[in-house]
Design a protein that fits this description.
This protein is an alpha/beta fold and 241 residues long. It has one domain (9-237): TIM Barrel (Alpha-Beta Barrel). The chain is 50% helix and 11% strand. It contains ten helices and eight strands. It has a four-stranded parallel sheet. Strands 5-6-7-8 form a four-stranded parallel sheet, with helices on one face. Helix 6 (120-129) links the parallel strand 5 (113-114) and strand 6. The chain is globular. The two termini are 31 Å apart. Mean pLDDT is 89; it is low at 141-147 and 233-241.
Length: 241
């Protein structure tokens, strides 16, 4: 994925009840847990990757994992492992004061999620509690590949962009270069594709070389789409450039 040109790596710590995730990520979590993956396994992977790349690494996991380890211990280990940010889908901002304080102590970004159903007053609170970027959930429901970009996604993207200068990355359903191009040309600063890569892995289990080749090609295709869209977006919004 890194060789394919991704700008940020989202590394998941698997959890037995990933309520925000659809079948693809659920299956990948179960495979990881069955294979003996632990939170420390994922943090060790992050630390190893940081010896090979300078791109940011963002951990995605559920709050039970962090709470069980202890907030201060988790974020101290995360910082030691080179983690730059954390996404916790099931932690509402209303209950995140201690979490944010522990993250800030270790200079790790707290990335919160907003959805099409988030009203402006709550959206402003989410923005105020976020650092790094805003994770915009593109659709109602759980993660998983979709066939296209919905109009409500573009409307929500515009609404969020009006309220913050933080970068906004759109996830949940991004599975094609056309999705990435549409979102970035509409103002997104990035796109998040998780289920797409999980599906590639699950479809090629046992063939590491082929899996890696397809993942690299897929990441490269998404990256080309975002570059193309960014140039178009700049041209449309800044005629003088």
């Amino acid at each position: 994925m890194i060789e394919g040109g991704i700008d940020i790596l989202e590394l998941g710590i698997p959890f037995s009840d990933p309520i925000a995730d659809g079948p693809s990520i659920q299956a990948s979590s179960q495979r990881a847990l069955s294979g003996g993956t632990t939170p420390q396994t994922a943090l060790n992977m992050a630390r190893q990757l940081k010896t090979q790349t300078s791109i940011p690494i963002v951990i995605l996991t559920y709050y039970n994992i962090i709470y069980h380890m202890g907030l201060e211990q988790f974020f101290a280990k995360a910082r030691f492992s080179g983690v730059d940010g954390v996404v916790v889908p099931d932690l509402p901002v209303d209950e995140a004061d201690e979490y944010r304080a522990a993250a800030a102590k270790e200079k790790i970004d707290t990335i919160f999620l907003a959805t099409p159903a988030t009203p402006d007053p709550r959206l402003k609170k989410i923005i105020g509690c976020s650092s790094g970027f805003i994770y915009l959930v593109s659709v109602y429901g759980v993660t998983g590949a979709r066939s296209g970009v919905q109009s409500i996604t573009l409307e929500t993207l515009k609404r969020v962009k009006r309220l913050t200068d933080l970068p906004v990355a759109v996830g949940f359903g991004v599975s094609k270069p056309e999705h990435a191009e549409t979102l970035v040309s509409s103002g997104a600063d990035g796109v998040i594709a998780g289920s797409l890569f999980s599906d590639i892995i699950s479809s090629h289990l046992g063939n590491l070389e082929e899996t890696c080749s397809i993942i690299k090609q897929t990441a490269s295709g998404l990256k080309r789409a975002t570059k193309k869209a960014a140039i178009t977006h700049i041209g449309e919004t800044s005629p003088s450039r």
